[in-house]
Every structure is written in structure tokens, then in C-alpha cells.
Design brief:
415 residues; 28 strands; Methylamine Dehydrogenase, Chain H; four-stranded antiparallel sheet; globular; 6 helices; 13% helix; mainly beta
């Protein structure tokens, strides 16, 4: 296995003494920042920065693990951490270490915040130097999906084995709150007004007990609605039970990626082992529709035990108008643009093992990562076709829109 390059400890020491970035709430001067797209290359330990206004030119590649030597010394000296580190490599990472899961930038474009699963932490990296300015270990042995508050001051990170979601200050990395989850906390989304957090746990996806009759072995899996100020769980829903009540028995309770419709009455989500997605009415507290999507021929008879971490589909986004969804058909190697009204769809074949979908900041395009092909696609919601294809690093997963300083972007474009 290819090992990441090491950075001298002296560089890490200098990074630790560097000044903190300006507070995320500080006013940003007009045109001081530009929109950029960040792609996390999980197995590489890097993040590619793509500028959408220059024909999706890749302008930089950020090293997310400049402290790898120090982290590996810590892991090797702790038998429990080492055991988990190796288990994550084999059971979750398909034989690879997981160095980049999720990432967001601060409003001022100075700091990139990244969850690093195998290193069980979250770090804040200053973009103009590439140095880590803060690091926060998570509860337990693995960090996972994150969400950033609309005002950019808080980031929620799932601690996979700690069964909690921790809320961190984006400026300092200090924990300011937490709330309980089920087994293997996973997806997080803030409401548009920042008052709520929509959270889901996925259970023990690494176990071989994948048949419906052994479903309870997966542990507790909940969809939760959390007060983003007090961090109190306001509602706790077993989506497997709700699906059963709606006439869809033997479906998993594990909610995967989700998309909130404008107004946030309806939520759309994927569940383990299912090739499609579910529409849920939060006001009526019931499943209203289920969309069945195509299954590739070589997957139709595939045992559940061979599914990638229980995922049939893993990636769901909605356009800005709330009329179309963008689906990552992970096991069947397609993306799809789906009408929210009719569930009619058009498939796009842009690579292998699509692992995430994200809507562009202007709401018009969908970004899809093809983790098995080391590239991403830009797909037009209106045209329902791929309009750009960009090569990235090894095993891209999460894609996020963020901010970069205009001065930093100019330097990258000129280099």
C-alpha cells in the first residue's frame, strides 16, 4: 500500500505556534473571497481545490495529513488505537487508510476543516500555508460525516465509535456541545435557519449479518432532529418502522445521505441495501413515497454481504429550486437526475462507484464523485447530462462548495 509522504516534526511545531485565523463571524470584504469546490481524496490524504469559473480548473492540492509521522507514532504506541486503526483499514477502508472524509471552509476562506477517520480527529488547516492550526480528537476511534452551521461558526462531526455528535467551534476547534446518537453516527445537516440539526446513525455496517432476519444485530439506528442551540434531541424516529407502516417491510432503519426540500417539510433519504430513495413528510410524520431505481444486472443477484458497507446508493442532493434530485447509484455505477414530482429519471454513466453528490452553490449543477475512477462529474440539473469531468486524487468521496481568499486563488492560478 502506498504510504503518505511525511513532514518533519519541526514543521508541525511551527504550525502549532502559528496565529489562529480571523473569527468566522468577522465581516468579509466585498470580493475578498471566491467560491471553490473541494474534493476529499480519502485514500490519498489530500483535497483538490477546483475553481468552477475557470472551466473547473484544479487550482491546488492540499495535503491533509502533514502531521502523519506524529500521528502514526501515537497510534503505534497505543495497542487499543493500533487495533482500531488496522480494523478501520480492513473493515471500512477496503484495505486502505481513511484520511479524508468530510471538509468545510470558514466563511472568510482562510481555514479548511477536515474530518480524518483513521486518525480519529478533526483538523483546521490554514489554506495559505497548509499548516494545521488546531486539532481535535473525537470521542472513540473514528471521525465521519460533518455539517457546518449556516453562519459558519460551528461544525458538527459524527464520532463513529463514540456514538455521539460533537459540535466544534470552527475558529479554535474547541468542543462547545454534543448530543447522543445511535450506533455509528453518520449523516448531519443543518436547517437553513441554523436552528436544527438533522442527524442519522447507520448502525454496524461492517458486520456480515446483513439479512433482514438478523437486522437487530446492526444496533440502534435513528433519524434525529436536534435543537442546534441546546443540543437536545427533539425527535427520534425509527425509519425502518415508518417504512413498515407505509407498506414497505424488511427495509433497513439506517438512513444514509439525505436531502431537504425547500421549506424543510419533506426530506428525501437513502437507506442501507436499497436501490432508490424515500420521501418522508416531517409534518405528517410518515413515509409518503418510495422511489425504486434501476439495479445493474451484475448486482441483481449479488448477496447483501458483498455490498459496499451496506450501501446500495450513497449520495443524494437536490437542486436549488427543489424540483430535481441527483442520485449516486453506488453499486450500479450510475448517477441519475430525478424529477421530484414524478420520480422519472435519466441515468448518467460517468465512472465507477459513485460515492457522493452535492449541489453547486448556485443550485444549477450537481457534483458527483466517482471513487472507483478517481474523478468527479459536473451534471446539469436542467440538461440532465454531464457537462464537465475532472480528474482528482485517489478515491474521492465528499465534495463540498466553500470559500477561498481571492488573493490565494490568484496565486494558485498564476503558479
Amino acid at each position: 500500500m502506498r504510504k503518505p509522504s511525511a513532514i518533519a516534526v519541526v514543521v508541525l511545531a511551527l504550525a502549532a505556534t502559528s496565529a489562529f485565523p480571523a473569527p468566522a463571524t468577522a465581516p468579509v470584504k466585498h470580493r475578498a473571497v471566491r467560491n471553490a469546490v473541494f474534493v476529499g481524496n480519502n485514500w490519498d490524504g489530500t483535497a483538490d481545490v477546483i475553481y468552477p469559473r475557470r472551466n473547473y480548473k484544479r487550482v491546488a492540492r492540499i495535503n491533509i495529513i502533514p502531521d502523519i509521522d506524529e500521528r502514526m507514532l501515537e497510534i503505534a504506541s497505543n495497542p487499543e488505537r493500533l487495533a482500531y486503526f488496522l480494523a478501520i483499514r480492513e473493515a471500512v477502508g477496503e484495505g486502505h487508510d481513511q484520511f479524508v472524509d468530510d471538509m468545510f471552509t470558514t466563511k472568510d476562506g482562510r481555514l479548511l476543516i477536515v474530518s480524518r477517520p483513521s486518525l480519529a480527529d478533526v483538523v483546521g488547516i490554514r489554506l495559505n500555508t497548509g499548516k494545521i492550526v488546531w486539532r481535535t480528537p473525537v470521542e472513540g476511534q473514528r471521525s465521519d460525516h460533518m455539517a457546518i452551521s449556516p453562519n459558519g461558526t460551528r461544525v458538527a462531526v459524527s464520532a463513529s465509535t463514540g456514538n455521539v455528535v460533537q459540535i466544534l467551534d470552527t475558529r479554535t476547534g474547541k468542543e462547545v456541545g454534543r448530543f447522543p446518537s445511535g450506533d455509528s453516527p453518520h449523516e448531519n445537516n443543518y436547517s437553513a435557519d441554523g436552528k436544527l440539526i438533522y442527524h442519522a446513525s447507520i448502525g454496524r455496517v461492517y458486520t456480515p449479518t446483513d439479512q433482514p432476519e438478523a437486522d437487530t444485530s446492526k444496533g440502534e439506528r435513528w433519524f434525529e432532529i436536534v435543537n442546534a442551540k441546546t443540543y437536545k434531541v427533539q425527535r427520534k424516529i425509527d425509519m425502518g418502522e415508518k417504512l413498515d407502516e407505509a407498506g414497505y417491510p424488511n427495509m433497513s432503519s439506517a438512513v444514509r445521505p439525505m436531502a431537504l426540500a425547500p421549506g424543510e417539510r419533506f426530506i428525501y433519504f437513502q437507506v442501507s441495501f436499497f436501490h432508490g430513495f424515500v420521501e418522508y413528510d416531517l409534518k405528517r410524520d410518515k413515509v409518503t413515497r418510495v422511489a425504486n431505481m434501476p439495479i445493474a444486472q451484475d448486482v441483481q443477484d449479488m448477496p447483501r454481504e458483498e455490498y459496499l458497507l451496506d450501501s446500495a446508493h450513497h449520495g443524494l442532493a437536490m437542486n436549488g429550486r427543489g424540483t430535481r434530485l441527483c442520485v449516486a447509484g453506488t453499486m450500479s455505477d450510475y448517477a441519475a437526475i430525478v424529477s421530484r414530482k414524478s420520480f422519472h429519471y435519466k441515468l448518467i454513466h460517468g465512472g465507477k462507484k459513485p460515492y457522493w453528490s452535492t449541489t453547486s452553490r448556485n443550485g444549477r449543477n450537481c457534483y458527483v464523485s466517482w471513487s472507483g475512477s478517481d474523478r468527479i462529474s459536473v451534471i446539469s440539473y436542467r440538461k440532465r447530462k454531464e457537462i464537465a469531468r475532472i480528474p482528482v486524487g485517489d478515491h474521492p468521496q465528499r465534495i463540498r462548495s466553500g470559500n477561498v481568499r481571492t488573493s490565494w486563488l490568484r496565486e494558485q492560478l498564476q503558479s
